[in-house]
Amino acid sequence: MQAQVREHVPAVTAVLTIVSLILVFGAALQAFPQESIPTAPQWVLDAIPHLNAAVSAVAIVTILAGVRAIRGGEIERHRRLMVASFVLFAGFLVMYLYRVALLGPSSFPGPETIELYVYLPILAVHILLAVLSLPFVYYALLLAATRSIHELPKTNHARVGRIAATLWTISFAGGIVIYLMLYVLF
């Protein structure tokens, strides 16, 4: 299987990106039958945004630490931190998709003026960067998973990884700002 993925990294990246986007937008639009989704107690659903904000903060730290590690030539540490970042992202996504599939997207509780001129533009940038980061993250991870350490410098891994880390970090930070606006400030 690894050999097949190795030969088709762009195609596998495209498939993973499309599947991810179908899941995200399907959940956000509540396109999945709700009776097929087991319902957790309300306290679990209420805790998910707070957990996801914490996961996002930790992911920002692991991404930045991973960037620092590779700049310092610490390849194994970089690998561990980037895998940890992806696991955090996956955990975030599972919790987010579960909650939004059941409850729909959260409504902005603050003033309409703030919603229109502050919240919605931040949300739009956050969503755009999250969507744009997916193929870069998948591509960088697939290259790393299918190539030896000695082969990676001959690929686009470093260039794509820089783009992925930048988009990913800003997207996670935007998510924290959205969380603060939805659950703390208003």
UniProtKB/TrEMBL annotation:
InterPro entries attached to this UniProt entry: DUF420
Output this protein's name: Uncharacterized membrane protein YozB, DUF420 family
Q: Which domain of life is it from?
A: Archaea
The transmembrane segments are 12-31, 51-69, 81-98, 118-142, 163-185
Keywords for this protein: Membrane, Transmembrane, Transmembrane helix
Gene source species: Natranaeroarchaeum sulfidigenes
Q: Does the keyword Transmembrane helix apply?
A: yes
Taxonomic lineage of this organism? Archaea, Methanobacteriati, Methanobacteriota, Stenosarchaea group, Halobacteria
